[in-house]
Amino acid sequence: MTVDESAPGPGAVRPGGRTARVRTAVLRAAGDVLAERGFAHLDLADVARRADVGKTTVYRRWGTATGLVADLLLDMAQQSVPRADTGSLLGDLTANARLVQRTLADPRQGALFKAVITAPTCDPKAADALHRFYAVRVEEWAGCVRQAAARGEVPEGTDPHEVIRATSAPLYYRFLTTGLPLDETAADRAATATAAAARAGAYTRDA
């Protein structure tokens, strides 16, 4: 579950100085467009105008809307909050679920995530970028399940990636398919259910 960075895509370099400021401005503008209008309306010329950057610069560096989304997802993965280490599986999963809940419940972040989640349905390269983003985030949090296994909280052979996916899956489902509020109660319920299932052996590789 690691990201292969041997062949970075457009905009994947992490430069300094003015180039870094341009990248920051463009990615911020791209996120605004995605949150406001969705992937289908992500236009590089519009992003350049919002970022106060020359169109040539944006087209030369990112090339396509998909290239821009890929770099935005890379940046989001790099800027994400590190995983918790509370000393218990339930505490760690609760921290994970509450982080997901806060992100999706935030008006701008929620709209942005909805845009990048739906983009892959019409663009294979966007799908690959999204898969890479979540591979990084799931692997970051998988460590808490490995620690739980070492403490004897879950059976040997528990798949850490499946446990982390199972924790956030109900929150994404509620977010994408209902108009119900996404609150801490929903987050805590998801974490509690996943921790109980993991302790019962539901996520062992044999299962």
How would you explain this protein's 3D organization?
By secondary structure, the chain is mainly alpha-helical. It folds into 2 domains: 17-77, Orthogonal Bundle (Arc Repressor Mutant, subunit A); 82-199, Tetracycline Repressor, domain 2 (Orthogonal Bundle), CATH 1.10.357.10. The chain is 69% helix and 0% strand. The chain has 9 helices and no strands. The chain has helices at residues 17-37, 44-51, 55-62, 65-79, 89-105, 107-118, 124-151, 160-177, 184-199. Helix 1 packs across helix 2 (44-51), helix 4 (65-79) packs parallel to helix 7 and helix 5 runs antiparallel to helix 7. The protein is elongated and about 55 Å long. The two termini are 20 Å apart. Residues 1-15 have low confidence and may be disordered. It comes from Streptomyces solincola. Keywords: DNA-binding, Transcription, Transcription regulation. One of its GO terms (molecular function) is DNA-binding transcription factor activity. Residues 20-80 form the HTH tetR-type domain. Residues 43-62 bind DNA.
